[in-house]
Design brief:
This protein is an alpha/beta fold. 35% of the residues lie in helices and 25% in strands. It has 11 helices and 14 strands. Helix 1 runs parallel beside helix 5, helix 3 packs parallel to helix 8 and helix 4 runs antiparallel to helix 5.
């Protein structure tokens, strides 16, 4: 039973359309937040189930500096069984699933969705429904039972590299789930970025305001700081994805310069180790954070000290890559903020 539940738990979910969201849904329209559910969540102990790519003490230090909206406990993925935590617990864990659809033309389209989810379970309903089924039917129905009784609180999406994405068509969900927890496959799953994600989610949950990512060129007044501060760009922004093969390759220097010189203020590329170091040392810088889920793109600019998102843009379209027009939109947004704030 435990092995089945662990796998099913990873498969459970809906399609997510935001790099960061806080609210009762992570797809479609945001919906209204139930204040009673939120207050109940704050009274729980959150069980964090992280990827095994970092040691437990790294995660402990991240949460110590970024999370105080609930008490918490870190549990290793291999030791985790949700039925052990039924009273006054919430959950926060890596998750993902693949979607397979057949188009009208007969083509088979496989999509992968990966994320870090924060949620509650209604175990009273889960246990009642499970008790009515024999072991064979329970195995088939447990996914639906968990999905129907999952209360979503917050989520941020994880950007898997193309080497992994290109394997999901031929992999079982069991194999995919193993990779999610044991392989270093995400561009935005590093200690520094995790800290900033949790800082932002902690603040959103404390404030109790629904936060959605469909906004185009949304910003805070802090974007004015980019006039006089470097914008750091992680090196994974240099990676270019081939639209036909979905393979990744490092872009040439000329291409990178011609693309990012579209941004009219100062910028500098940075490798992830140095970026993490600056974030964990609480150095104040601003950096770009980019996530792509299939053909959907999410661009954010983050204050590394606070985790605050000072700019965000949701982009749809067939292209897998950042284009000059996206940086021009950022330029226009900064200019708009300058005019607005004099």
């Amino acid at each position: 039973m435990k092995k089945v539940l662990l796998l099913i738990l990873l498969c459970t979910g809906f399609i997510s359309h935001s790099q960061i969201s806080f609210g009762p849904k992570h797809y479609g329209k945001p919906g209204k937040l139930d204040k009673e559910i939120l207050e109940n969540f704050k009274k729980t102990t959150t069980i964090f189930v992280f990827s095994n790519v970092y040691e437990k003490d790294i995660y402990e230090n991240i949460l110590k500096d970024s999370w105080d909206v609930t008490s918490y406990k870190i549990v290793a993925q291999q030791d985790f069984n949700p039925f052990d935590y039924q009273e006054n617990y919430s959950f926060a864990q890596v998750g993902g699933f693949k979607s397979i659809k057949t188009t009208k033309m007969g083509s088979i389209v496989t999509r992968l969705y990966t994320y870090f989810d924060i949620f509650l379970y209604d175990f009273e309903s889960i246990n009642k429904k499970a008790a009515k089924l024999n072991p064979k039917k329970l195995k088939k129905k447990i996914d639906d039972i968990f999905t129907e009784n999952k209360v979503r609180i917050a989520r941020f999406n994880l950007f898997a590299d193309s080497d992994f994405v290109n394997t999901v068509v031929r992999k079982s969900m069991d194999e995919i789930s193993s990779s999610l927890f044991n392989d270093d496959i995400f561009h935005n799953y590093t200690p520094g970025m995790l800290k900033n994600y949790f800082q932002k989610l902690n603040q959103l949950i404390s404030d109790g305001e629904v936060y959605w990512m469909y906004e185009e060129n949304d910003y805070t007044k802090e974007i004015l700081e980019l006039q006089s501060n470097l914008l750091y760009i992680p090196n994974y922004f240099k990676i270019k994805t081939n639209a036909f093969t979905a393979g990744e390759s490092e872009s040439g220097d000329d291409y990178v310069k011609s693309l990012y010189d579209t941004y009219v203020y100062d910028y500098k590329f940075i490798d992830m180790d140095n970026l993490d170091d600056k974030i964990l040392k609480e150095e104040k810088i601003y950096y770009l954070r980019y996530v792509r889920l299939n053909a959907e793109k999410f661009i954010e600019i983050v204050n590394s000290r606070t985790g605050e998102v000072i700019y965000r843009n949701y982009i749809t379209g067939l292209s897998y890559n950042i284009k000059p027009k996206h940086l021009k939109e950022l330029n226009k947004t900064i200019s708009k903020a300058i005019k607005k704030n004099g």
